[in-house]
Amino acid sequence: MKFVRAIWKLLVGIKDALVLLLLIIFFAGLYGALSARPAPVREGILNLDLNGSVVEQPARRQWADVASSGRLDQYRLRDLVAALDKARDDSRVKAVSLDLSGFSGGGATAIGDLADAVRRVRGSGKPVIAYGVGYTDDSYALASAASEIWLNPLGGVLITGPGGSNLYYKGLLDKLGVTANVYRVGTYKSAVEPFIRNDMSPEARQNYTALDQARLETWRQEVKLARPKANIDLFLTNMNGAIAAAGGDMAKAALAAGLIDRIGDRHAFETRLADLGGGEGSGGAPFREVKLGSYVANVVDRRPSGPIGVVTIAGMIVDGKAGPGTAGGDTIAKQIEDGVRNKGIKALVVRVDSPGGSVLASERIRQALLEAKSKRIPIVVSMGSVAASGGYWVSTPANFIYAEPSTITGSIGVFGVIPSFQGTLQKLGVGADGVRTTPLSGEPDLLKGPSPDANRLILTGVEAMYGRFLNIVAQSRHKTPQQVDQIAQGRVWDGGTARQLGLVDGFGGFSEAIAKAAQLAGLGNERGVRYLEQQPSFRDQLIETLADRNDDDSAGPADAFSMLAHEPEQQLASAITEVRAILSGPSIQARCLECPAVAPARVEQKDLTWLELIRSWLG
Prior knowledge:
The protein has about 625 residues and is of the alpha/beta class.
């Protein structure tokens, strides 16, 4: 027995030693990963291999992203712009590669800002070479700013323009027995139409048509300015004819129309980069590459401490706290209050890229901005791709509002949706009954439907909120509520029309907003900024580090047609998340569902469970 016990103790000791050794190795590797300095930048080609979308504020990565292959990343717009601006005068950067084979797009204003940065690199005398297996509206708008546009021989330029079909759920809800109790103000507040109609209303069609025509014309003018010799109108009006004239070869059709400069596969493209960057890279790499992540880490100051505070309101505006990529009312208000109280800021620039959301959260942010303004801190709003409904609500405290012609704004209106399930219970043979002690006991009744008293009360609340919205805008824009109502009613405007209507003060981007804030604060030539935002936690840094190691496994669309197929996939994901957000969100919302998404939607597990329940119910 003593011998057996001795053997057992030995085995236990070996096991404990191995566990301890593994823990030491794990934490040593973790420490090394988190404390590692970025790779040094050497001479070569700055490679913007954009495998994903461009956003104002990337969403926080999750643990699932660490093991995910085929992941599409989100790139912070200001990091890309700063990297390109640094590259202009950096002797180590010989040229810039713009690899758009996996690019999934971004808002029109964000892409315009990035294209402007590309043009500034070209203006410094350095070439920018774009490559893609296929170009869609977003990727071509960006590529058009490059010195050379390359296209894979099997690819094509597939420009579709704004527009398309939307999903309407009235028939589905009827089959499920679900009643969407809708409360809205505004002739053009079509956000709730999918729940009460099977098609688009004439008013919504009128608004969509005017908006999309303006968006198309802005896109067209920007592309023609970048490539004057390109016959872009031919591809917009008769793409099939252009391709037929080239013998069915889409790449040759694009070349004949002047939309691209070279047809070549990736090997030929990389040979061109090697010629520009001084030959092949180390370890058999096809060219001397300066990786984007390393370059940003080396040359971009992500924590500047200037006197101009910058607040980013990106994504859905929600109640309470939220991480990056979603605008939590309490989170953003606290950032503003802390910046004013503890960080000595002299001016505020508010970058808005949001379709709105919760009315209460929007008002929480607005009050924080008004408090800063009461302390004689000037506020300048810089609108991104979308600043509508609640996104416009939070913009009203500004001394000056900048937008771009491509910005989508307005949507001054509110709505509420409360689902009830009396039809569902009837289909299941289930009854619902009870007693009331007051006219509003148990209201809103989701089992039998809201009573007339409850409907009247909720509609009164929506109408009061709309009246408050009108008064806020009227006070901000020096108009009467009646004047605002004529351009409100939930109608969505492009930036150019919004300026004519007086909803914005001028055209300009983020840099113009910084200069205006400095002017209003009397800062002279000072342009230093301080970003008022959450700093990444240890968990965030760990996930970011581990996920970055899998970047080489990320894969975007493989060809031109798969890039087009990716758009309906995103549309379906957006529809699922929008339904969830409306039905589970606050009863009264200031939100623009007509507006394009500011970031790709992410379908959660609970969404898939919900869809499975619907499928089994209908099956």
